[in-house]
Every structure is written in structure tokens, then in C-alpha cells.
Design a protein that fits this description.
The complex is a heterodimer of chains A (331) and B (323). Chain A has 331 residues and is of the alpha/beta class. Chain A is built from 10 helices and 12 strands. In chain A, helix 4 packs across helix 5, helix 5 crosses helix 6 and helix 6 runs parallel beside helix 7. The two termini of chain A are 20 Å apart. Chain B has 323 residues and is of the alpha/beta class. The two termini of chain B are 32 Å apart. In chain B, the strands form 2 sheets. An 8-stranded mixed beta sheet of chain B has the order 6-7-8-3-9-10-12-11, sandwiched between helices. Chain B has a 4-stranded antiparallel beta sheet with strand order 2-1-4-5. The chains are: A alpha/beta (331), B alpha/beta (323).
């Protein structure tokens, strides 16, 4: 378990030994395997990893929006003192979007093409609270203003907006009921760098003003290091390294984290040939024995192929699951 | 002795919109693009979506025919109407790697079936045995080893990175002189990106080809290229040696791209973006400099006149009135 003694407030979200996955003909795929973390109020947790590492499954598990063939197998998701994993569907409905909302990966597909954005925003209000038409309308105009979209866009249809604007509408929709936690699943991946930057600035500005917490999921580690307070690196369903963004960037410990860091050429400094990571993530139906990264790890030892290392504390707010660092206190 | 393999002179491409109506308008996807490419050089074209970088590659690859201007390849102007033989000869020398590794491979053919086509079409090898040897050789070069494990596979059985390797193998199979790579890594997983980039650099060296590398990622452009072109709304804004574009960029748009790029080293010291906004409509591009509506330094002249490309240093040109 990761200690959060730096913050005396109780975390708003605690994930404890969460296991979730998909039922397949050939067995159960553990897409999220024994994941634990805390998120404090107003915190910004970044989750990084390749496709298929379970980061989106984790997000959908917290939202309780997993597909029919998927389920939460064990573990707890404690949110404001209640375990979301055990809530009945109708109780979860009262929390979803009101307390926890989500910005989906591709705004282009998440918005309904035959409804104006104004209708979609007011729908979101009506679905979760008893308000009059005009109150909902005012609320929608208000959130659009938050994300810098002028109110004459209220009756526009999604295809009339640019990609960046659609993504901002998605953010507006996530904020419309003033949630405590917003989960963002690759909100800027399909966007250009400049648009991405303006969206990120907007998110940070709104977070400072409204005080919600964020779980930000992306594969772009260089972006994540810059914007998060805390980072979790996921590989094949497990968190392999966890800690403050600063610690992870300055002293990455896990060979996978180091590999990810080496996958982005830098804009400043000297150019050197960079490595990236050879191979591909394992098949989760039949994960390798021992450490799941061992088949791709340049420093794998014989023990790595036999047993799985546990997430161990290494210094303040930094932990890693790797035998290379077992028993070593500080890097 | 002229060392240029490719020369574009004032090439424009305008797409008609509502072409059935008279007096229809045009999308100015590419306007007055001029640049040259030296033999063995890697030239990166950087810009946001809609800046015209893919159109530029498609015009060079003759997927589109330019509206005006001339393209010269190996000292000969490429005419708009080529005979079938000339067209084939040109395409043997100029190959393209596409952005989407999933869409670029025929799903009904095996890797072998996909890779034997260029050999047969360009009549490089005709005997079954020769073709097979060449396929094995090129698969090994792109890191799909052992080849016999991949030749029988269909695209859906491969991962994204492996598919892009097949694409690259197909482009290199005909021993081209020029490769046009259109965002070849943007749809790949992070861990694959560097190995694909390194492999392209290695193949470029070993085959001695020239490269046009299109990307929206400035850091990736720096890693790959000798020179960088920065495009905005269909026009070249700045062109120069990669290090100069990154470290001594002059155009406000290049600077904007630089501040927007994620860069953890800068971290908290990051300056806030001074400009927002989107790329302008290319149907009615703004008068004057196309960047002026977003430019923090715009003055009156910028909205009236289009600045010309000016030389500010060795090989370094910029289109801006500030200079």
C-alpha cells in the first residue's frame, strides 16, 4: 500500500487490490490485476501504459461501466466511504456523472451526431437531477462558457465543430454536474499539439478553480510527467511503478518506466540514439510466469521468471515492483 | 554538379468544393510550396492537421496532380500526364509509407502476397525462387525474423508495429531513391515508435535513400531529420537545419509549436501559451500572412500583404515581416 502521509486529508478515492477483467471462451483475462492506489482531494493522478495494459479497463471499472462480458472480480473501490464495486446498479446511477464523471477517448464518437450539443448537455442534467428546462439550459450555457465556447454554438451539431471544440464540449459535459472526480481517458490523443496544450491548460485552470480531482489516462508519458502530481505506470494489468511525477521522472526505477522514458525523443538537449522497448506486451490470457515484463526486460534475472515482485516503497512517495530494487532503499 | 534529387517550385494544390456549381470555391490545401531535397537527406515536414503536409506528400507521390507549379525529380520535370511506363518507372523510385498500418495492407493477402507484388509489378524478379529470396531478405531487414514465420500470415494476425514493418518492407522492396513517410509512427504504440524510427534511419543509411518525413511531433522531426520545414495553412512558414529550427526558431508559429510540445524537462517552468485558436478555413484563407489572426506580434501589414521567404542564416529561411 502506498502511504499518503504527506496529505492529512483522507483520500477521496481508494482502490484496494482491484481485480477486473473479461470473460472469454478460453478463460478469464485479468486486464486489471491487483491494482491499489489512493487519490486525494484535488489530486491529479496520471496513469500511463501501452494499449492493452488495462488502463481503460481500470477507468471503466471505477465508473462501473464495464461491458457485459467484463466484471470486477475482487477488490474494493472506496469512494466517499462507499465501495463502488459492491453498489447496486441503481445506487451507482446516483453517483455516476453526479460525483464521478468521465471524458471519453474520442470525442468524435462519444457525441451524438443527430443532437445539438446544447440538447446533449441539457440531457445530461435532466438525466441526473430534477430541474426545469430553463435551469438546465442555463447550466449548459454556463459550462460551455467555462470551456471557452460561445453560447451561439449551443445549437450547433457535433460535425460543425472542430476536434478541439468537440473535446471541450466533452469536458463541459463531464463538469456539468460539478463532480468531485473526473476520469479522463486519453482526452487529447487525437488532437494536434497546440490544441492539446490549450485543452490541458483549460483542464488545469478549471481544476484549480473548481477543485475536482482528475485521473488522467494516456500513453504519452512525456505529457503526463508534466501535468500530474502522481504517476502510476501500468504494464499488463499491474502497476509496476508509482510515485510523484518528479521522482519518477528524475529517478525512474523500473526498466519498463525507463524504456517508456526512452521512447520519446527530447526537444532540448543532445540527440542520442534512443532505444524504446523491444517486443510486445504479453497475452493476458496466458501471462508469463513471474514478472510480466521479464520477457522484454533487458535486465531480467532468473528470479524474475519465477515469482512476481511486489510493489515496495522506495523513498518518499515512490514505489516500484522490481527485483532489481528489492531490499535497496534509495536509488 | 547539382546534388538535388527533388525540387518543388511554387507548387499549389487547390481542391474544388461544390464543383457542380459554377463559380465554385477551392480549398487551398497547398500554396506556393518551394523546396529542394538533397540526395541522402532526411527532410521533415511539421505542422498541425490541415497544414497541407500530407497533400504535399501526395502531390510528390502523384496521388494528386498539382494545380500549378513544377516538380522536378532527378533533374527532369515531372509532367502532369505521364505515359504508363514513365509512371511505373517514377513509382519504382518514389515510394510511400502510410500513416495507417491497418488500412494500408490488403486484408485478403498474406504477407508474402503483399510483398511479392512490387517485385512482379516492377519486374525486378520473376522467378518464384528469386522473389522468395528477396522477400526473406527484406523481411529480415525490417526485423521480422525468422521470415518464414511471417510470410504465411495475414495482416490481421500481426500487431500494429509488425504491420508497419511490412509497409516499410514493401516500400523498400523496389530499392527506391526517395521515400515519403506520412506520420509512420503516429498510430503505433509508444514502445514501438523508437524501434520503427531507428529502423527507418538504418534502412535510409544502408540503402542510401532520401527521405521526406511528415509528422506533427517536433521532437520526432528533430530526431529523424537533417532539415525541417514548418507548414501552416498550406504554406511554408520556416525552413532550415533541424537544430536551428528547434534552437533558433524565428517564426512565431514555430515558437508556438515548440511551447505546445510536451517536454517534461521544462516541466513547471513552462510558459503559458500566448495564442490559441485554430487553423483558418482554407476555403477563404485570411488575407496577408495566414498566421496573423493567431499571431501575438501581428501588425497592420501582416493582414494586408503576404510576406515572402527571407534568408536569415545559412540554409535558414522564414516567411515573416518581423524579419
Amino acid at each position: 500500500m502506498i502511504s499518503m502521509d504527506k496529505y492529512d486529508v483522507t483520500p477521496i478515492l481508494q482502490c484496494k487490490k482491484l481485480v477486473a477483467g473479461y470473460k472469454m471462451k478460453s478463460g478469464f483475462v485479468h486486464a486489471v490485476d491487483d491494482v491499489s492506489f489512493d487519490l486525494e482531494k484535488g489530486g491529479f493522478l496520471g496513469i500511463a501504459g501501452e494499449s492493452g495494459c488495462g488502463k481503460s479497463t481500470l477507468a471503466f471499472a471505477i465508473m462501473r461501466l464495464l461491458k457485459d462480458n467484463a466484471k470486477i472480480e475482487s477488490g474494493e473501490i472506496i469512494f466517499k466511504g462507499r465501495d463502488l464495486a459492491r453498489l447496486k446498479d441503481n445506487e451507482m446511477k446516483k453517483i455516476r456523472w453526479v460525483d464521478i464523471s468521465m471524458v471519453f477517448q474520442s470525442a468524435m464518437n462519444a457525441l451524438n451526431p443527430v443532437l445539438s450539443i446544447g440538447e446533449q448537455l441539457t440531457d445530461a442534467v435532466h438525466a441526473h437531477s430534477e430541474v426545469t428546462q430553463s435551469e438546465a439550459h442555463d447550466k449548459a450555457i454556463e459550462v460551455l462558457k467555462l470551456v471557452d465556447i460561445s453560447q451561439d454554438r449551443f445549437n450547433s451539431y457535433p460535425h460543425q465543430l472542430s476536434g478541439g471544440m468537440k473535446q471541450r464540449v466533452m469536458i463541459a459535459m463531464a463538469l456539468i454536474l460539478n463532480p468531485t472526480l473526473v476520469i479522463m481517458d486519453e482526452p487529447t490523443t487525437a488532437l494536434d499539439v497546440v490544441v492539446q496544450r490549450t485543452i490541458i491548460e483549460k483542464i488545469q485552470e478549471l481544476r484549480n478553480a473548481l477543485g475536482f480531482s482528475v485521473i488522467f489516462i494516456t500513453h504519452d508519458l512525456s505529457l503526463l510527467v508534466e501535468i500530474s502530481d502522481t504517476l502510476a505506470i501500468m504494464y499488463a494489468g499491474k502497476i509496476v511503478e508509482y510515485g510523484s511525477a518528479e521522482a519518477l521522472f528524475n529517478h525512474p526505477l523500473h526498466p519498463y518506466t525507463i524504456g517508456l522514458m526512452n521512447s520519446f525523443p527530447s526537444l532540448t538537449g543532445k540527440i542520442s540514439r534512443m532505444g524504446g522497448i523491444e517486443g510486445k506486451p504479453p497475452n493476458l490470457l496466458d501471462p508469463p510466469e513471474g514478472c510480466r515484463f521479464s520477457p522484454r526486460c533487458p535486465q531480467a534475472m532468473s528470479i524474475c521468471r519465477k515469482s512476481y515482485p511486489s510493489l515496495e516503497n522506495k523513498g518518499e512517495n515512490h514505489s516500484v515492483a522490481c527485483f532489481l530494487h528489492e531490499g535497496v532503499d534509495k536509488p | 554538379m547539382n546534388n538535388d534529387i527533388l525540387l518543388l517550385e511554387r507548387v499549389s494544390k487547390h481542391f474544388p468544393v461544390n464543383s457542380l456549381r459554377r463559380g465554385g470555391k477551392f480549398v487551398h490545401a497547398m500554396d506556393e510550396i518551394s523546396f529542394s531535397l538533397k540526395r541522402g537527406e532526411v527532410l521533415a515536414i511539421v505542422g498541425e492537421s490541415g497544414s497541407g503536409k500530407t497533400t504535399t506528400a501526395n502531390v510528390i507521390a502523384r496521388i494528386y496532380k498539382q494545380t500549378s507549379g513544377s516538380v522536378t525529380f532527378e533533374g527532369r520535370e515531372i509532367s502532369k500526364n505521364m505515359s504508363r511506363e514513365d509512371e511505373l518507372r517514377y513509382h519504382k523510385k518514389v515510394q510511400m509509407i502510410f500513416q495507417d498500418p491497418f488500412g494500408a495492407l490488403n486484408p485478403t493477402r498474406t504477407v508474402e502476397g503483399i510483398l511479392e507484388r512490387p517485385f512482379l509489378i516492377h519486374k525486378i524478379a520473376s522467378k518464384r525462387k528469386d522473389v522468395k529470396d528477396r522477400i526473406d531478405e527484406i523481411l529480415t531487414q525490417v526485423g521480422l525474423e525468422p521470415p518464414e514465420q511471417f510470410t504465411r500470415k495475414f495482416p490481421h494476425e500481426l500487431s500494429g508495429g509488425q504491420r508497419q514493418r511490412v509497409n516499410i518492407a514493401r516500400a523498400f522492396a523496389v530499392e527506391p531513391e526517395l521515400i515519403l513517410a506520412d506520420e509512420p509512427t503516429s498510430m503505433l504504440d509508444v514502445s514501438n515508435r523508437m524501434s520503427i524510427m531507428n529502423m527507418m534511419l538504418y534502412l535510409k543509411e544502408s540503402h542510401g535513400v532520401s527521405f521526406i518525413y511528415i509528422t506533427h511531433d517536433l521532437a520526432g522531426a528533430r530526431y529523424m531529420s537533417d532539415r525541417i520545414i514548418v507548414m501552416y495553412a498550406g504554406m511554408i512558414m520556416e525552413i532550415g537545419p533541424a537544430e536551428k529550427i528547434i534552437n533558433d526558431s524565428f517564426h512565431p508559429y514555430t515558437k508556438l509549436l515548440k511551447t505546445a510540445a510536451p517536454s517534461p524537462e521544462i516541466g513547471l517552468k513552462r510558459k503559458k501559451l500566448i495564442t490559441g485558436g485554430d487553423i483558418p478555413s482554407l476555403i477563404d484563407p485570411p488575407d496577408g500572412c495566414r498566421f496573423h489572426p493567431r499571431c501575438p506580434f501581428a501588425s497592420d501589414i501582416c493582414s494586408l500583404e503576404m510576406p515572402v521567404m527571407k534568408k536569415i542564416d545559412e540554409d535558414h529561411y522564414v516567411r515573416c515581416f518581423l524579419r
